[in-house]
Design brief:
Elements: H1 3-13, H2 19-30, E1 36-42, E2 55-62, H3 65-69, H4 73-80, E3 84-90, E4 93-101, H5 102-108, H6 117-122, E5 126-131, H7 134-144, H8 147-155, H9 165-177, H10 188-194, H11 197-207, H12 217-242, H13 246-258, H14 266-270, H15 272-286
Parallel strand pairs: 2-4
Antiparallel strand pairs: 1-2, 1-5, 3-4
Length: 290
């Protein structure tokens, strides 16, 4: 890995955030004392100065699932279908956080990952808002620095010949959005890049020389689409067992991003897994999620 890209990633991860978001990250990490290695803050709330009423997004990186959860079913679920997702509140702010091991976070940011969910997110801006020590900080930086080359490597064969880094990022996000069940409005994948052109230009120029060259990119993207949508459904169904009010959260998220007015019926709260599995296919057919 060239020094330039890692430096860009380290500097971006170290940029300041709203103090309450940093305090929330520390409070989340305290729940996993002895296991927590780093906490990353990501998503649309990074661009917001007023966080009240929003849902903040964090990734909690742990040394292992056993260290985080012991020998119970949560450790098994997290290992088989990472990450586990939980709700959190602190200082009048709301958040959700995902738990992932250092080994999985490193692997799922790279081209060996079997789906797009991690490297698609961390090719975008993030902040490292808590770290156990410098070794944990370095590992988090190394893992995140794999994301942009992974995205550009898979996007390059699917773009016009000689496409510039900005166009490769746009194409990559277009393809990753199509590989998951997304509630965001059409065109959101392109606006990610347009909202911060200089950032993506600098990252693209540093990351493109490191991008791998997949042998069968089109086949890989077909696999990502098939697997990604199934994984999204499976993870959302799993979240109803780890996330209090999981069905309500799914409806809230879709209503917020897609401008819909989904109502959760009482029976869906009593049987959340069944409710999620019934709700999502209907929303897909109606175009609320893609």
């Amino acid at each position: 890995m060239t020094h330039g890209l890692r430096d860009l990633v380290a500097a971006e991860l170290a940029r300041p955030v709203e103090p309450r978001a940093r305090a929330m990250a520390a409070a989340i990490a305290a729940q996993y004392a002895g296991a927590a290695r780093a906490v990353l803050f990501y998503g649309s709330c990074l661009r917001e100065k007023q966080l009240d009423g929003l849902m903040l997004d964090f990734y909690v990186i742990v040394s292992s699932y056993r260290a985080a959860f012991g020998l119970g079913w949560r450790a098994v679920w997290n290992r088989l279908l990472p990450p586990n997702v939980f709700p959190f509140s602190h200082d009048r702010l709301l958040a959700k956080y995902a738990v992932m091991s250092e080994a999985d976070f490193h692997r799922l940011n790279g081209p060996e990952a079997g789906d797009v969910s991690v490297w698609a997110r961390f090719a975008q801006p993030a902040r490292l808002v808590w770290a156990m020590d410098e070794a944990a900080r370095d590992k988090a930086v190394d893992a995140v620095a794999r994301a942009a080359p992974t995205l550009l490597g898979y996007a390059r064969p699917m773009a016009a010949k000689g496409a510039k880094p900005l166009d490769l990022f746009r194409r990559g996000f277009e393809l990753t959005y199509a590989s998951e069940l997304r509630a965001e409005r059409k065109g959101r994948s392109g606006s990610i890049v347009d909202d911060d052109l200089e950032r993506y230009r600098r990252f693209g120029e540093a990351a493109l020389p490191l991008a791998h060259r997949p042998d069968k990119a089109a086949k890989s993207w077909r696999w990502f689409r098939r697997k990604g949508k199934a994984l999204t459904l499976a993870r959302l169904a799993k979240a109803t067992t780890t996330y209090s009010g999981g069905v309500d959260y799914i409806a809230w998220k879709i209503n917020r991003h897609a401008g819909t007015a989904i109502e959760v019926r009482p029976w869906m709260r009593r049987f959340p897994i069944v409710g999620a599995l019934v709700m999502l296919p209907r929303l897909w057919r109606r175009g609320a999620i893609r």
